[in-house]
Amino acid sequence: MTVAAPPKTKHNLKLIYQKPESLTDSPTHYCPGCTHGVAHRLVAEVLDEMGLREKAIGIAPVGCAVLAYEYFNIDGVEAAHGRAPAMATGIKRVLPDRVVFTYQGDGDLASIGMAEILHAAGRGERITVIFINNAIYGMTGGQMAPTTLPEQVTTSSPRGRDVATQGFPIRMSEILAQMDGAAYVVRRSLHDPNNIRKAKKAIRLAFEAQVRGLGFAMVELLSTCPTNWGMTPIEAMNWVRDHMVPAFPLGDYKVAPELQKLRV
Amino acid sequence: MTVAAPPKTKHNLKLIYQKPESLTDSPTHYCPGCTHGVAHRLVAEVLDEMGLREKAIGIAPVGCAVLAYEYFNIDGVEAAHGRAPAMATGIKRVLPDRVVFTYQGDGDLASIGMAEILHAAGRGERITVIFINNAIYGMTGGQMAPTTLPEQVTTSSPRGRDVATQGFPIRMSEILAQMDGAAYVVRRSLHDPNNIRKAKKAIRLAFEAQVRGLGFAMVELLSTCPTNWGMTPIEAMNWVRDHMVPAFPLGDYKVAPELQKLRV
Amino acid sequence: MQTEILIAGFGGQGVLFAGQVLAYAAMDAGYEVTWFPSYGPEMRGGTANCTVIIADEEIGSPLVAHPKVLMALNAPSLDRFEPQVQPEGLIVANASLLSRPVERQDVTAITLKANHIAEELGDRRMANMVMLGALSTHLPVLTLEQIKAALRDHLPKRKHHLLEANYRALDTGAARARIVA
Amino acid sequence: MQTEILIAGFGGQGVLFAGQVLAYAAMDAGYEVTWFPSYGPEMRGGTANCTVIIADEEIGSPLVAHPKVLMALNAPSLDRFEPQVQPEGLIVANASLLSRPVERQDVTAITLKANHIAEELGDRRMANMVMLGALSTHLPVLTLEQIKAALRDHLPKRKHHLLEANYRALDTGAARARIVA
Amino acid sequence: MAAKGWVEIDETLCKGCELCVNYCPVGVLAMDTERLTPQGYHPAALVEDACTGCNICAVVCPEAAITVYRAVKPRVRATA
Amino acid sequence: MAAKGWVEIDETLCKGCELCVNYCPVGVLAMDTERLTPQGYHPAALVEDACTGCNICAVVCPEAAITVYRAVKPRVRATA
Amino acid sequence: MPRELMKGNVAMAEAAIRAGLEAYFGYPITPQSELLEHMAKRMPEEGRAFLQAESEVAAINMVYGAACTGARVMTSTSGPGISLMAEGISYIAGTEVPAVIVDVMRGGPGLGNIAPSQGDYRQVIHGAGHGDFFPIVLAPASVQEAVDLIGEAFDIAEKYRTVVFVVADGSIGQMMEPVELPEPRPLRRERPDWAVSGAAGRPHRTLTSLYLKPEVEERINLRILKRWQEAEANEVRYREYYLDDAEFVVLGFGTAGRVALSAVRAAREEGIRVGLFRPVSLRPFPYQAIRDLAQRAKAFLVVEMNGGQMLEDVQAAAQGQVPMRFYGRMGGMVPFPDEVLEEIRTLAADPPTPTENPRARWLAHMMPA
Amino acid sequence: MPRELMKGNVAMAEAAIRAGLEAYFGYPITPQSELLEHMAKRMPEEGRAFLQAESEVAAINMVYGAACTGARVMTSTSGPGISLMAEGISYIAGTEVPAVIVDVMRGGPGLGNIAPSQGDYRQVIHGAGHGDFFPIVLAPASVQEAVDLIGEAFDIAEKYRTVVFVVADGSIGQMMEPVELPEPRPLRRERPDWAVSGAAGRPHRTLTSLYLKPEVEERINLRILKRWQEAEANEVRYREYYLDDAEFVVLGFGTAGRVALSAVRAAREEGIRVGLFRPVSLRPFPYQAIRDLAQRAKAFLVVEMNGGQMLEDVQAAAQGQVPMRFYGRMGGMVPFPDEVLEEIRTLAADPPTPTENPRARWLAHMMPA
Lengths: 264, 264, 181, 181, 80, 80, 369, 369
Ligand SMILES: Cc1ncc(C[n+]2csc(CCOP(=O)(O)OP(=O)(O)O)c2C)c(N)n1
Ligand SMILES: Cc1ncc(C[n+]2csc(CCOP(=O)(O)OP(=O)(O)O)c2C)c(N)n1
Ligand code: SF4
Ligand code: SF4
Ligand code: SF4
Ligand code: SF4
Ligand code: SF4
Ligand code: SF4
Ligand SMILES: [Mg+2]
Ligand SMILES: [Mg+2]
What we know:
The complex is a heterooctamer, with two copies of chain A, two copies of chain C, two copies of chain E and two copies of chain G.
Chain A: E1 13-17, H1 36-50, E2 56-60, H2 68-71, E3 75-78, H3 84-94, E4 99-105, H4 106-112, H5 114-122, E5 128-133, H6 163-166, H7 172-176, E6 182-189, H8 193-211, E7 216-222, H9 226-229, H10 233-247, E8 251-255, H11 257-260
Parallel strand pairs in A: 2-3, 2-4, 4-5, 5-7, 6-7
Antiparallel strand pairs in A: 6-8
Helix pairs in contact in A: 1-8, 4-5
Chain C: E1 2-10, H1 15-28, E2 32-37, E3 47-55, E4 69-72, H2 75-81, E5 90-94, E6 108-112, H3 114-121, H4 127-136, H5 144-154, H6 163-176, E7 178-179
Helix pairs in contact in C: 1-5, 3-4, 3-6, 4-6, 5-6
Chain G: E1 3-7, H1 8-18, E2 23-26, H2 33-45, E3 49-52, H3 56-68, E4 73-77, H4 79-95, E5 99-105, H5 121-126, E6 136-138, H6 143-160, E7 163-169, H7 170-174, E8 176-180, E9 206-207, H8 214-234, E10 238-241, E11 248-251, H9 254-269, E12 274-279, E13 281-283, H10 287-296, E14 299-304, H11 309-318, E15 324-328, H12 337-349, H13 358-366
Parallel strand pairs in G: 2-3, 2-4, 4-5, 5-7, 6-7, 11-12, 11-14, 14-15
Antiparallel strand pairs in G: 1-8, 6-13, 10-12
The structure holds thiamine diphosphate (2 copies), iron/sulfur cluster (SF4) (6 copies) and magnesium ion (MG) (2 copies).
One thiamine diphosphate (TPP) sits at the interface of chains B and H.
């Protein structure tokens, strides 16, 4: 294969993009094409841009992102499954001037961690939540998640999710928007560059909400799991677009007035 | 005191109301004027009217209603704090033709039991939930509940609930109405005879929903706790009307189409 | 040397508070003391009682099967605890709510109509203090003055306007205490 | 009498399945057998290996420090496990992915370019069967025929169209196995 | 019997909460401050002869302590 | 140098997911099927000289493996 | 029945189904998930209840509910899930309803890892929940034994109206072995006379663990203890290997016991008179059998995949009658037979003194200063 | 400091505040709630963090989070809450961060009741969470001792980077006694070098209990065990009463120990040479001291407010060196001194045989057939 020749000199080349400082150098353990990596990158870019790297404390979930604390170049802790919002609360209450965020999957946040996320929102806990909705339990081998679509085949819904016995997909943004303590609750998707850019803006606002002390902030990100969906990364991106976005409408579910004015 | 004379004979008197069969003869342990008793009575009346007494299995919560299984003349079990919906699920899944209901307080359902109630609703579990919202932890001596009003003084919010640190009241009906599995979610109040009558109709519909297999059904009942509020029973009724109803609007949050047509 | 006082009545009769007053007085007098409530089930109503033990060395059990002193504010309490009082012990009973006299012959028994006296004095909630006053007349370890001082020193400031009424109830109780056996 | 076979490679190379085929063959032949995977961390990628123990009495440990047989499907596996094979043991290595020969002199070593052979045969996923075929030539407890029969009897019906290709891979592997040490 | 209705209050159940008294639209109920129930409460009692049998007291009673009767007009047999 | 942009792909990070290749609007990226990264993947590579520096590949790369440069026009000093 | 090659997790699931399981509630966790997945596939096929709960907390309370109807019901999980089930387990025990729980143990504490471990021993045996009760705990060492014990677990749970644990270290869950599955038992149709089912034509029934009056709670506690005493008398299970003439005894359960078996055989070949004692019921613990061995053995070696949790019980059983060594691997490490063989050799060559502290000596060996 | 008459729960809360508590997270439960309520009042006054969590699960995970910042943090609960905290406790232990937990024990299992009990002994000591770790457990027998132990608990937790329990039976929480409170300690301002706080001017730090590689997890496990060994060497606490010339020894902790003290005094008056051994640290357990006593006593009597949970440890310690009786009350019953006195009399008049099973004999006595 012929690779394009490098530029003769670099001095008339402007650096447009490079790996953010808020990520470490470690390669991740994510499967090729998994958008967990995209979400990490966006969070890191926002921390860099807002100058929060040295103030941030990140909380990794139990889920594929369990080692997130090794990839973020910030202080980090590992939560018990679903309890990241409670752990974040504990940290934020003793270090109110730090920037505390959780990074959680759909099993973590919407299944076992349902009570903790709702109460953190109800309390208006000044934390930021990055919620990766990939409609599956990635880490444990592809079991059904609360966000699994009707009829979707998983290892624990081998005949497809039967809503009559296994229930309906749970839409967390809609639920959390009901909480008075929530300042910012939106859903975005990572299925193409354009949506990724929008997701980044949302993440920015979710950290702005915290820095400004407005309350609880969450960005739900529709994300891929090529491995457990049995797809190539590109097929997975398209599956998000074609199947997940219709079931989980993108949009702003709650935006505090102070944030509506902000341009980021 | 002169008590009105009894009627000469009773044979031209028609029995209009008597204690329902679905209640046992035991006196309750509730404080005088506590509307837990009203809620019990309404549930029992509905069971009687629908002929469900011998099919019903009730699940008592951890809360003042902990002994509910002694007052209902039906089969009953005692759940762990907040877990009644899970226990109900276990029962209903093995006995799908029985009528299973939980009876839960606001601490039980909206605090520790948040995940279980939301997931039961999400699964469209065919159970009926009677939710007693009295804005306080009655049984343990009057601590703050998730539904405690802003500024309300409790033993764990001695300076009044401070929403900045202790969060906002949580409105469960609004949240649960978001769940696709929910067939019937309404809020009623027990603060006067008229509202009590409306509450009974709602309870009836909540059991109809189960009998018809439509999905999850919940009636939220605004209720009094004269003891921990430090009021007389009548003051407490008025406090519900004047303070709770404005904060927890009465209404139908979700009614399955099949139920809308029903006249009860 | 150890004195055990069991105070029993309905919830709402000020049983626990009466015990606390004794406990404060004992502490201020330099004794070891424990106050032990029978905290009821997590729900309302029913009876309430507490045990106060006053001693001059490290106190062992905070509960005893056979207290030296019983202060019974209502009938069920007398029924339940009268048989348990030590021989040579003391029973102070609230005749306002009794349907029968103290039956034990081997104890000192004092009865007085504490509710009636309290109502006379203008505050029915003072029945517990009336009883305490009566108790003080035969309690070996503490004097009426010590009990009054404890009230003064430990009643929260915002309740100090009630001090006088309490003193009066104590005094009246002490004055009207009648040994019946 | 007990034979331990350690099969190791990348995830995705069919390591676990190759072990299972051996286990089935052993079971059908009436042996006691255990198949033990090194199930990796709850996440993707990395290496995979499994140990198959075939014996004629109740099997003790499902793992051994020093297996009699190593089937190494890639370079890291050979590097890691070669030193552990028992003296007089057997190493079957996939030369397609090796950068060096087997170094041990005290074992029987068989190498073959399993990936290349599989690609030749038209299905790169058959490398594991090619390796198994090679292994069968020097495995004391099981014959190639028994392995084939196990495949036939235990491959789920919906995969039976693959049987022929598997047989061919096994045969070719057996044919091309070359003892190198 | 002048009244259209009649109520019986079960004193083993009544806790003297006064809710029935408060909500009775015709004011025929009152607390019997002279009597004590076995549970130690002053029970409610029907004190006037003007009960309408409207059932409101029973609807509000937390203890299901009230039984309500209503007078029925002697049935006039329809002559077909 | 003809192109307006330039990308560098860090092969210790690239996992060969092909997302960048798929989304590059001018199609200048391709998988290098001849090379294997230390993690055992075929990496992406810039194979044509027409990169616009649009940054889309970097936006989509899950591994933050791509560094993007853009050519800057030699600045013409404004004569005030 | 013909032998089938099955993964431990799958075999346990299938064995439960054949034992007449009516409902399964669980939550995914490695290294147990295949058990849940097999249930997801098979239970609906059989027209029985399968539900992936929202959490282990919910799962155990679903089990609790179903158990109250007298149905055969089970759940399965691993370490963190066992912790989350503690409250529900205590309620089940306090309500005296039967339930079966499978713990496929992994490395801990905390999130730990998913490698095989025996680190939940103490928790399952002593601390499965608050308050006074004793679960029955069975520990298989092979897939076949796991299948057999699952079947028995239901009968035992019902006999003593209690919680029965089957604790399989991760290896038992993950490995494949040939097994003979039992014939499917028909579903029981009659319900026990304590079960709730709707008060049709009989007085209403209640099931609770709440006894507000201490006198009453005490009676219930004593009744539970009494049943436990019966279980202690009837349900002790263990396996002995080469003990007849043994001077030295290795003790280990589950996979550690199997590994020890290999080592014992190797040591026998070297002429060391050593045998193996493998507890199968961890509760009731085979105190008496071990005490008897202690009288006649020269020394014990306890082998575990934890920091010496069963060791404490062996010490309690032996009552200082025999000197003892300990060898453990922790955190998901599985000992190799060679390591245990080496320990046996040392034991024989340089027997422990009666006062030597087995854990301290081992720890000094594992973590030289 | 002058003595104040305080309820145990309130005194423990105030003692923690004076020990420099920075954050309290808890959930109401009887008989512990006054502790939480005192925190609700006082912590905001001091400008420190108080939060009523949505559950015990959330509370312990808030504690976990705060502990990771190096703050002094605690929670308090009772039986069911301890069960719900099990997972979080295991994570805290696995992450090696310090935290203090108060368990005001009530009757169990299940919902049980709220009367005083010692039924959580086994759970707290052996089963506070999954995986290999040992919490340190302190058991006060008076309000003053509770105050003192709370203060020490924080120091010990930090010294060994572990979980320290203070287990007070319901009676200690509910009773009032005069106490001398310590002077308030200033809040610590420096943070330990393992704490997370934002990676300002230093490499980023992480705190976790996840160690995917078993080799690494094993090293952590061993490190935890090593610290525990140090605690075992340094932190044993007990109180002895009238033991110098004692032929008979009563053993009991907490309220059971106090009750026994009254009985021992009464028995002494009757001329029985009996003394009391009251363990204060339940873990590390005073094995050696008890073993020494076993050598010289004629018989032991273990008294508990449970079904003989500490009894098992006393038996393990005594190693069959002394015959033993047991007397327990369960389900929220508190024994009266008279009952224990009667047991002492029997012990002296009709000493147990070496082989008699203390629990079986007691059970037969409590539940005659
Ligand atoms: C208490 C507990 N239960 C279960 C598990 C096993 N577990 C690990 S990750 C996970 C679910 C992960 O799914 P999700 O949160 O959607 O994250 P993803 O892997 O999809 O990113 C589960 C159930 C655990 N570690 N702890
Ligand atoms: C796990 C657990 N935590 C706490 C408690 C203590 N507790 C008993 S009832 C109750 C709250 C009751 O409040 P609510 O549900 O509102 O019912 P109410 O008494 O007001 O009717 C609590 C916290 C418990 N029994 N179990
Ligand atoms: S399993 Fe799925 S979610 Fe997890 S890293 Fe792989 S692709 Fe991503
Ligand atoms: S405490 Fe409140 S809720 Fe409970 S019975 Fe009394 S009044 Fe009702
Ligand atoms: S029935 Fe109506 S009128 Fe009669 S007492 Fe009751 S409320 Fe009053
Ligand atoms: S409402 Fe019922 S309980 Fe209350 S006073 Fe009337 S009869 Fe009695
Ligand atoms: S910067 Fe744009 S044009 Fe250049 S390689 Fe990336 S996507 Fe293609
Ligand atoms: S998107 Fe990134 S990881 Fe994927 S192929 Fe391109 S450079 Fe490699
Ligand atoms: Mg997911
Ligand atoms: Mg409430």
